[in-house]
């Protein structure tokens, strides 16, 4: 299992979330950080950031000489240089049954600081090399060239969004954080352009929590590698995120997910 995203010294996000989740689910993980941050970027001051993108290509080349045979590749927050590097090396890992890309670049109707239309275009070019993507609502709209709109929408509109991404990029799709007209939040999924898309409803929980997308993507990736369907993996990921939110006291530090890891392991064993 290869995981590549940023690592924060303080804050339960990105690689600090994905590694323990996937290790708990029984996968031997090879980690390739895209950057090291003293803290994550939400509410803890200005972090010290060290890019590690230059290590991606030589590390991947070294790993190619080893008998790794990873069952999956999980790509999260990349940044411009790391995205370009993975564009070059991801074809080397196409034998992995699952290549999940979380196109972490935007939220709340706007791009993250430092990203622009060129980054969105680069992400569009990378996505067809993956097998599954997990954008949030804003990212999904940007990938489709739409103006971000966070207004509540119907089930049909939500499923249309997921289906459009699958049709355009040829990948399985989960769009997260979609507000529905009934007040719930949804994950809309589509496995194939010829198959109907679907919606999973989730209760909207108050507050804003960092790392929810990272945690969701890690659980989905692990569940898929354990043989679950995309829809079952999405249900498990959303349920685990909700449990972590309910255990979290200080949202600035990310989600308190560790206490739920035994539950997650049991859930997958029982499925």
From TrEMBL:
InterPro entries for this protein: PM/HMP-P_kinase-1, PyrdxlKinase, Ribokinase-like
Keyword presence, Kinase: yes
EC number: 2.7.1.35
Pfam families: Phos_pyr_kin (PF08543)
Domain Pyridoxamine kinase/Phosphomethylpyrimidine kinase per the UniProt entry, residue ranges: 85-248
Name used for this protein in its record: pyridoxal kinase
GO MF annotations, alphabetized: ATP binding; pyridoxal kinase activity
One GO cellular component, as annotated: cytosol
Gene Ontology biological-process entries: pyridoxal 5'-phosphate salvage
EC primary class: transferase
Keyword Lyase set for record: no
The entry's keywords: ATP-binding, Kinase, Nucleotide-binding, Transferase
Gene3D superfamilies according to UniProt: 3.40.1190.20
């Amino acid at each position: 299992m290869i995981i590549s995203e940023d690592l924060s010294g303080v804050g339960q996000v990105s690689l600090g979330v994905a590694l323990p989740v996937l290790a708990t689910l029984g996968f031997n993980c090879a980690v390739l950080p895209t950057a090291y941050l003293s803290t994550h970027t939400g509410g803890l001051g200005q972090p010290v950031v060290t890019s590690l993108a230059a290590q991606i290509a030589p590390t991947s080349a070294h790993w190619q000489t080893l008998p790794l045979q990873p069952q999956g590749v999980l790509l999260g927050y990349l940044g411009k240089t790391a995205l370009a590097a993975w564009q070059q090396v991801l074809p080397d890992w196409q034998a992995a049954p699952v290549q999940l890309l979380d196109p972490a670049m935007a939220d709340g109707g706007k791009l993250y600081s430092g990203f622009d239309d060129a980054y969105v275009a680069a992400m569009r070019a990378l996505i067809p090399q993956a097998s599954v993507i997990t954008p949030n609502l804003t990212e999904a709209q940007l990938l489709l060239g739409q103006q971000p709109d966070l207004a509540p929408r119907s089930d049909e509109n939500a499923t249309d969004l997921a289906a459009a991404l699958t049709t355009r990029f040829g990948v399985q799709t989960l769009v997260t954080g979609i507000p529905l007209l009934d007040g719930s939040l949804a994950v809309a999924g589509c496995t194939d352009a010829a198959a109907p898309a679907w919606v999973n409803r989730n209760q909207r929980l108050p507050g804003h929590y960092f790392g929810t997308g990272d945690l969701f993507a890690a659980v989905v990736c692990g569940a898929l590698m354990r043989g679950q369907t995309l829809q079952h993996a999405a249900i498990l990921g959303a349920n685990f995120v909700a449990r972590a939110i309910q255990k979290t006291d200080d949202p600035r530090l990310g989600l308190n997910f560790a206490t739920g890891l035994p539950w997650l392991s049991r859930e997958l064993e029982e499925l």
